Amino acid sequence: MAVDDPLSALRKLVIGQKSAALPDINAEHPLWPLHQQVQAYDAFVTRAVIHVLGGGRDVQPFTDRPVLDALLQAAAAQPEAAAYRRYLERIDTMLRLAGEVATARQKQD
C-alpha cells in the first residue's frame, strides 16, 4: 500500500474535516472554556492550512497550546472529553502535515 505524500494526506484530511464536529454545548456547560479554546485552535489550523495550500512556506506554532492542553486534561472525567481528544488529534495531524509541506517547500528553495 502506498503512503500518501504530506500534501495529498493534508488535502484528504481537509476534505474529511468537513464532516467532523465538536459536541454541541452552551456557555453554561463545564466544558465551555475547552470548547472555545478548541475552536480558536481550529481557526488557527485552518488559516495555517489555507496558507500552505496557497503556496506558503512556513507554519507558526499555536502559542496557546499549553492552555488548551491544561483544559483538556482538566476535562478528562467529562463524557464529552473523548470527542474533543479525537477532534484535536485530527487537527493536530493537519497542522503537522501543513508543517511538513512547508518544510519541503523551504528545502526546494
Descriptive notes:
This protein is mostly helical. It contains 4 helices and no strands.
Class derived from helix and strand content? mainly alpha
Amount of helix = 55-70%
N-to-C CA distance: 31 Å
Rg to the nearest angstrom? 15 Å
User: Care to count the β-strands?
Assistant: 0
Number of helices: 4
Average of pLDDT? 93
The percentage of residues in β strands lies in: under 5%
Silhouette: elongated
Largest sheet: none
Helices and strands, in order, run as HHHH
List keywords for this structure.
109 residues; mainly alpha
Helix/strand layout:
Elements: H1 6-17, H2 32-53, H3 65-74, H4 81-108
What does this entry show, briefly?
The protein is mainly α and 109 residues long. It is 66% helix and 0% strand.
